[in-house]
Amino acid sequence: MDFPQLDYADVTSGDPARRERFAAELVKSFETFGFASIINHEVPEETIKECFEYSRKFFALPHETKMLSKHPRGIAPRGYSFVGQENLSSLTRADRNMAKYIETKESWDQGAPNDTPNPTNWAATEAIPGFREFMEAMFNTMHDFEERLLSALALGLGLPATHFDRMHTDRVNEFRLLHYPEVKVKDILTPDATQRTRASEHTDFGSLTLLFQDSVGGLEVEAHDQPGTFYPIKAASPAMIINIGDSMQRWTNDRLRSTIHRVSVPAALRKAGEDGSEDAVIPSRYSIVFFGKPNRDVSLYPFPQFMKTGTKYPDITAGEYNHVRVVTTQPQ
């Protein structure tokens, strides 16, 4: 899917007209696709490369070492999740008549240092000098840029630039490294009771998601006007991919909708698998994801500006909504 690539230099130029144009284009891209791609953002390319390198080092650790930081039971993803531990198909399986997939991915998750109710277990990362210091700094970098994007989004929606500030003061965001190990194409495309996928169809829960991906491919987005039709997102690092989460959809009463997306077989390899090739292999894929989330006590009830024809959603706090959604993805 070739949605417009927005230039964040329009925001930092000092030209109010360019800033307003960026804000309007951001809203239009979200209204049309639920996603946007941004260049010239404020995360340095060298920092992104370093983050990918730390990611490769972490996932290359022995399984026993990674399990020192095993993700505990609970609603806040923290630490290491092994292949098959998280199941996103639980989020959409019931209403889409989907089979339960085995998801061939592993992840590292961390929260903010001040999120004391949900601490990050760093034990496994002690094997990688500098990992914790870098990742905590990267968390802050991503958080700060998310705040700037929320300001631009507010302007594009006709709201004060500071509208979202008070809803995101607690830094209850989640920062994730993802690794999708090499897998044969036929193992993903063969329909059976134990079908595997890389990441099942799902939406994100928060306000905005910020993502960097490598060039392997496989990230796909469902068309708003064509349910069941998915298009590949080709933008790769250093371009940043951003998308709307469920919280923003509720606040805007569906003006902006969180789009269903998944990670599947890259388009370039799909034909080989469909032709019955036994040897076609999807290479390892890495991505970096920052899930921007509202304070847990913030209401997700639609803003008055978007309720001219009534509301589509009951009142619920961000924390309550997050609990309902996350608990379904974890093993029982």
From TrEMBL:
Superkingdom assignment: Eukaryota
Alphabetically ordered keywords of this record: Dioxygenase, Iron, Metal-binding, Oxidoreductase
Record Pfam families: 2OG-FeII_Oxy (PF03171), DIOX_N (PF14226)
GO biological process: small molecule biosynthetic process
InterPro entries linked: DIOX_N, IPNS-like_FE2OG_OXY, IPNS-like_sf, Iron_ascorbate_oxido_reductase, Oxoglu/Fe-dep_dioxygenase_dom
Fe2OG dioxygenase domain location: 133-294
Single GO MF annotation: metal ion binding
PANTHER family: 2-OXOGLUTARATE (2OG) AND FE(II)-DEPENDENT OXYGENASE SUPERFAMILY PROTEIN-RELATED (PTHR47990)
Family to which the UniProt record says this protein belongs: Belongs to the iron/ascorbate-dependent oxidoreductase family.
Protein name, as recorded: Thymine dioxygenase
Organism: Diplodia corticola
Lineage: Eukaryota, Fungi, Dikarya, Ascomycota, Pezizomycotina
